[in-house]
Design goal:
By secondary structure, this protein is of the alpha/beta class. Helices cover 35% and strands 15% of the residues. Helix 1 packs antiparallel against helix 2, helix 5 packs across helix 6 and helix 7 packs across helix 9. The longest helix is centred in the middle third of the chain and has 22 residues. The chain is elongated.
C-alpha cells in the first residue's frame, strides 16, 4: 500500500453507458499521484462484510475499459441498512475517499453513509457521480446524468426502426420505455422520432394516472391520424406511469399479475408494452376501429451500449472532477460539471427529502421546449370533433386537453 492511502470505487443500481469511463478517469487521476485504487464488485453488497469482493485497478485495467459499455465492476441493487455499516474495510485499506457511481438510490445510500462515517471520526470522504439513463437526479440547470444521452441515442435508433416498420406495414406500435418515476427517456426518444403521441407521468399533474385516460389519449391520436389520412404510427409511453397508479387500478386492468409478499403487483415480471398494447387492442375492438397494434419494449437494450462521444467526454470530466473536489476538501456531495466548464459540488444534504432519500427530478412540463413538442403531437382538438364522429361517439372525451384537465 502506498503512503497516500486508497481510493475505493463502487457502482450500484442498473448499468448505464459511461460507467467504465468514470471508473477509468477517476482511477487515472489518482494513480498518477501514487494512490492505490480499489474497485468494489456488487456495489454495497459486500462492502460491510468480512470479505469484500474487490479488484485492484491499475493503469492497464483503467485504460482497457474506458470506452467500453457495461461495467467492469459488477453491480447490484443492494441497499444496506444503517445497522450494517462497518469501518473495517476503510480502516484496513486506509481508504481516503469512497467514490460511488449510481442513481438516486445509490446517492441516497451514499448520503446515509457519509453522515455515518462522519460520526466515526474517520477521515473518509465520499463523492458521488450521477449515473442513470433515467436522467432523474436533481442536477442544476437541467444538466444530464451521464448515460442518458447514450441511452437516448440507442433508444432513438431502435425507435426510428420501429417507426419505419409502422410506415412500411401500415401498423401501430406501442413502445414502452424505462424511466422509473420520470419520463425523460420516453419524452426524449419520442420527440427525436417524431412520434405522434408521447405519454409520461408528469403530464398527469391535474388528474390521476389511469388506464382509461391513457387509452383515450392513444385512441385520440390514432383517430387524428386517420383524419389526416395516415394509418400508421407509434406511441411512446414511459413505464413511470405505473409508479403513480394505485394497486387497485393496476389489478383492475384485467392483466394477470403475480404479487409480492405485501400484495403489490410485481411489475418487473411483465412487459409494460404488452400490457398497454393488449388494453389498446381491446379498446379499438370495442370502438370497431380496424387497427393492428404491436408492443415494443425499450429498456435493457440501451443500458450497456458503447457510450456516445458526449458521454465519453462528460464522464471523463466527471471522473477527473472527483479528483478536483477531493483536493479541495469536499465530501458528501455529487460532482457536477457545469455548462460553463466549472466543477462544483452538489451536497447530498441539500437535495434530500424528509426521508433522507434523494428527490427525483421529473420532466419540466412548464418549459417552452415541452410546450413546443406537446403542440406538435397529433391530438383531437375541438375543430376535429365533427369529423371524428365517424370513429368515435364522443370525440370530446378523446381530446388530450380535456383528458389531462388542462
Amino acid at each position: 500500500m502506498t503512503s497516500k492511502g486508497s481510493i475505493a470505487i463502487l457502482c450500484a443500481g442498473g448499468p448505464a453507458p459511461g460507467i467504465n469511463t468514470v471508473v477509468s478517469s477517476v482511477a487515472k487521476a489518482f494513480l498518477i499521484d501514487g494512490y492505490r485504487v480499489i474497485g468494489l464488485n456488487y456495489g454495497y453488497k459486500t462492502l460491510f462484510t468480512d470479505r469484500p469482493n474487490t479488484v485492484e485497478i491499475d493503469f492497464e485495467f483503467a485504460d482497457r475499459v474506458f470506452n467500453v459499455g457495461g461495467s467492469a465492476l459488477k453491480m447490484s441493487r443492494h441497499k444496506p441498512k444503517d445497522a450494517e455499516f462497518k469501518t473495517d474495510f476503510f480502516v484496513k485499506n486506509d481508504v481516503k475517499l469512497l467514490v460511488t457511481i449510481g442513481g438516486d438510490d445509490t446517492a441516497s445510500t451514499a448520503n446515509r453513509l457519509a453522515k455515518w462515517l462522519a460520526t466515526q471520526k474517520l477521515d473518509v470522504r465520499n463523492i458521488h457521480v450521477p449515473k442513470t439513463i433515467d436522467n432523474d437526479l436533481p442536477l442544476p440547470d437541467r444538466l444530464p446524468t451521464f448515460g442518458y444521452h447514450s441511452a437516448k441515442n440507442e433508444g432513438t435508433r431502435i425507435g426510428m426502426t420501429v417507426y419505419e416498420d409502422a410506415r412500411t406495414s401500415g401498423n401501430w406500435f406501442v413502445v414502452s420505455m424505462m424511466g422509473r418515476e420520470a419520463g425523460h427517456l420516453a419524452w426524449g426518444v419520442g420527440t427525436a422520432c417524431h412520434y405522434p403521441m408521447i405519454i409520461i407521468p408528469e403530464m398527469f399533474d391535474k388528474v390521476a394516472v389511469t388506464f382509461d385516460r391513457m387509452l383515450r389519449m392513444m385512441v385520440g391520436t390514432i383517430v387524428k391520424r386517420k383524419l389526416m389520412g395516415i394509418d400508421y404510427g407509434c406511441i411512446a409511453i414511459s413505464e413511470g406511469v405505473f409508479h403513480f397508479m394505485s394497486d387497485d387500478e393496476i389489478k383492475n386492468s384485467g392483466i394477470q399479475f403475480t404479487y409480492d409478499d405485501h400484495g403489490h403487483p410485481e411489475l418487473g415480471n411483465v412487459s409494460k408494452a404488452h400490457i398497454f398494447n393488449m388494453l389498446l387492442s381491446k379498446k379499438l375492438k370495442e370502438l370497431k376501429i380496424d387497427i393492428k397494434s404491436r408492443p415494443v419494449e425499450i429498456g435493457y437494450e440501451v443500458r450497456c451500449g458503447t457510450p456516445v462521444a458526449f458521454d465519453l467526454k462528460y464522464c471523463t470530466i466527471l471522473g477527473e472532477g472527483v479528483r478536483e473536489l477531493f483536493d479541495s476538501g469536499k465530501s458528501g456531495c455529487i460532482v457536477v460539471a457545469k455548462n460553463d466548464g466549472a466543477i462544483a459540488p452538489l451536497y447530498l444534504k441539500d437535495v434530500e427529502g424528509p426521508d433522507g432519500k434523494i428527490r427525483p427530478r421529473l420532466v419540466d412540463i412548464s418549459g417552452e421546449d415541452f410546450r413546443i413538442v406537446l403542440k406538435n403531437l397529433h391530438v383531437i382538438k375541438p375543430h376535429n370533433y365533427e369529423a371524428a364522429k365517424k370513429y368515435l361517439p364522443d370525440p370530446e372525451n378523446y381530446d388530450l386537453m380535456k383528458i389531462l384537465g388542462w
